[in-house]
Amino acid sequence: MESAIVSINLFGAVALLLFGLSQVKDGVQRAFGARLKAGLAAGTRDGVRSFLAGLIATIALQSSTATALMIASFAERNLVAPRMAQIVLLGANVGTAMTAWIVSLGIGWLSSLLVLVGVVLSRGTSNARKGGGSALVGVGLMLLSLHLIGIATEPVRTSAALSAFLVMLDNAWPVALIFSALLAILASSSLAIVVLILSLAASGGISTGLIIVLVLGANLGGAVPPVLATLRAPISARRVTIGNLIVRAIGCLVALPLAGYSAQLFDILPLSHDKLPVDAHLIFNLALAMLAWPLSRPLAALTARLLPEPSSMPDAPSYLDEEKLSTPVAALAGASREVLAVGDLIESMLGQASDALQHADPSKLAAISVLEGRVDRLQHQIKVYVSRLGQADIGEDNRRRAMDVVDYAINLEHIGDIIEKGLLSELAKKISSGLTFSRDGHEELTRLFAITLDNLRMAQTVFATRDAALARRLVEVKEDVRRLERQSAERHLQRLRDGRAESIETSSLHLDMLRDLKRINAHIASVAHPILDDNGLLIESRIRQAG
């Protein structure tokens, strides 16, 4: 019965530590999420800045796993070079080791004060105050959990069963390393296991060599959760987490045979045995960073060979079959399907921009430039393909269809340019400057984004079906968009006259985004013009009234 109570107390204290870590991560992301991500993305231009960015982000988030997943998402969007991503994770590993060292300083008496201040702050109205309060509560709970872990393990330290188990591990260091790694994987945190080792070390019943081996195992296991979290991610993201696992695994394999010599050195140095786990944790990660940093380029090349890109290139056209050029109808069908695929890319770009407006997340913008490059290349390939088809006598109907295909491809490419050169820069400026639209202004832009996405989907259907009624509706909706844009601009000017601070700060951004969305809708509606013209419904750019 007593052992069951001890186990419950110990696991409960570890669970509280993990909950405190998650509170810190969630609070920091709520308060500084967009700026933290923007800083992490901007801080990866050279090795030193990449290392510091990973270190600072991990100390702020209290989680190297969170940093690893963020930098993997940036690598997925080509926002960070593979080599720099590996250096960021070296900094993250040092950051989590520094966190363990800081929380072991014996400042548990601050826990109640931090929880109290955090709760008071979390009552605030702004996201920054709520997030900061949640983070302080998390730190307080972490410090409290250290105290509870110490209390929970006190009866265990004198346990004969524990002593026998530690003796067994001390005689089988590879088993001890694997055992510690499994615990870190189950906890999804190397920090939690290092803290647990710290508590056991306080009893003095665990050898210096075994402490080092257990710390190595915690480091190895801590690299596994990001790998598991990115198993279904694109290749570029998986390379980052696999590279981090390779670095830690090699580091542990090299350090394990040297653990005995390291233990002798630690025993000579004037270091406290009670704090040895966090000291060893920090020294190992600093040494690993210094050794692996110069090898970051070969490591990136190795992960590229281990996880090669699929053989089919993403920019290769799927439906432009050279053999079908001799059959105009089949060739035009393929070109039409390829143009629809370009329209899908444009929809993805608009969706990313809309998400960035909603969540102020700079990572949502990273994919837009990549997608726009694909749009440019595909529309060029479509034009070349259709031009080759036009060199033969294909008949008047096929010739007009060919022109419609090329016109739609060109309009989609123009839309991509507006999104990248207009909306992308405007949203990036808003996010980086921490600007916020007024509630009414935000709702107006959100509605116009939603209408634009719906219109693009309608245009795709119009192009594929050549439905005259739907084409007529698309042109009518374009007029609705013009009216909405004009009304939103007028309301915005009224808010300026009323002196609303958010509207004053974001005035140029609001009006520029309205203008860009109106231009996008004009290009979208152009797909309907040849269809209306063929049906005698378009006269001098106006729809002929029915009846």
Terminal CA distance: 89 Å
**Overall helicity:** over 70%
Structure class? mainly alpha
Low-confidence stretches: 540-547
Shape: elongated
Tell me the series of helices and strands, N- to C-terminal: HHHHHHHHHHHHHHHHHHHHHHHEE
| Quaternary structure type | single chain
> Strand order within the widest sheet?
1-2
Question: How many strand segments?
Answer: 2
Kindly state the mean pLDDT as a whole number? 79
Radius of gyration: 30 Å
Note down, in words, how this protein is organized.
The chain contains 23 helices and two strands. The protein has helices at residues 2-42, 47-61, 64-76, 82-103, 111-122, 127-157, 160-170, 173-187, 190-201, 208-222, 224-229, 235-255, 259-268, 276-292, 296-306, 328-359, 363-389, 396-432, 439-465, 468-497, 501-505, 507-525, 529-534, and strands spanning 538-539, 542-543. It has a two-stranded antiparallel sheet with strand order 1-2. Helix 20 (468-497) packs antiparallel against helix 22 (507-525). A hairpin with a 2-residue loop joins strand 1 (538-539) and strand 2 (542-543). The chain is mainly α. 47% of the residues are buried. Helix content is 80%, strand content 1%.
